[in-house]
Amino acid sequence: xxxxxxxxxxxxxxxxxxxxxxxxxxxxxxxxxxxxxxxxxxxxxxxxxxxxxxxxxxxxxxxxxxxxxxxxxxxxxxxxxxxxxxxxxxxxxxxxxxxxxxxxxxxxxxxxxxxxxxxxxxxxxxxxxxxxxxxxxxxxxxxxxxxxxxxxxxxxxxxxxxxxxxxxxxxxxxxxxxxxxxxxxxxxxxxxxxxxxxxxxxxxxxxxxxxxxxxxxxxxxxxxxxxxxxxxxxxxxxxxxxxxxxxxxxxxxxxxxxxxxxxxxxxxxxxxxxxxxxxxxxxxxxxxxxxxxxxxxxxxxxxxxxxxxxxxxxxxxxxxxxxxxxxxxxxxxxxxxxxxxxxxxxxxxxxxxxxxxxxxxxxxxxxxxxxxxxxxxxxxxxxxxxxxxxxxxxxxxxxxxxxxxxxxxxxxxxxxxxxxxxxxxxxxxxxxxx
Length: 434
Description:
Blueprint: H1 5-21, H2 24-44, H3 48-76, H4 81-84, H5 86-113, H6 122-137, H7 144-148, H8 155-158, H9 171-176, H10 184-205, H11 210-222, H12 224-232, H13 236-251, H14 255-266, H15 273-285, H16 288-298, H17 300-323, H18 340-347, H19 351-372, H20 378-395, H21 405-412, H22 414-417
């Protein structure tokens, strides 16, 4: 059986299910499974922010499950078509986002501002301290000597293993002090919401059906992978949203704007660099001008963001961005979810070498795929990014379950990025400034 046959069969089954119930059956499964997941996290998680999220998000998922089951029953009886159709699904999706992401986020950020511990992941404090250092010293990074001078318990949080742009999310706390809205997570959420809404609006105005767009939003903002991350300290969500906006712009041949979006993502986290590479390969298939426009933002922006930190303290930049993620810092990264890469590195003799070889093999396979079947459209680019980051998330020795958000988001957005016939006359078309 060809490798592509399984995803095609899954897609066909999903499409038939959506056609037969208008997407409600899949919604019911999504909200029901998310309810069980949230309850489980609330009961068994060893991380206080995750437990709090589970207990506050579970009622929202449960209400959404009950409502969608009622929608299914009404649909079978042929009643309330607006409530059981796409407007009803879209409204319930927005409710689910507010109840399972917005409410837990506001609760935890306000309780944290009141001085109560255990209401944020360590990443939130790391980003906020980086913003404070950026204001005071011009670089968000501490040097190795400065980290060594910290108490042993604080040395891990002294590292900021992100690109310099991530420190911008810590500026509200540095400027306004300890209030709920200055929490870095609030900035993550606001930026993510604006970017996601921009991508959805762009695709909707270009004629993408509402049904696939609802599913695409659910993948990012309703599924626990996104909701849990954003409510407890999700610095990955703005990166994902920027990449998805870049893919939406690419679908409409806005290579310059796509370059700016993916370049901003790469200025936040290194994990966006493979997306830059895939979009650059796609742009190359569209001609030299498209590649130049994409590269100007996709490569130029992250380099420009790195330069100030390089000039202020190049050694501190290397310590945080290179040495620490590679396992050569004063302390080791706590990223150790029991995914295959971590298990191989931990329990097999020579596991780190084996893991590195598997990563190289996966990278070579993705490269070979791109050579044989270049990413000639945004949907294929998203597919390559999704499978590539899935392989990386599974095989990296230091990884988290949260990294799976990237492949989930990219793969779930493939249907909304496929080329469609031009909209009929009178339907508004997206106007993109070149």
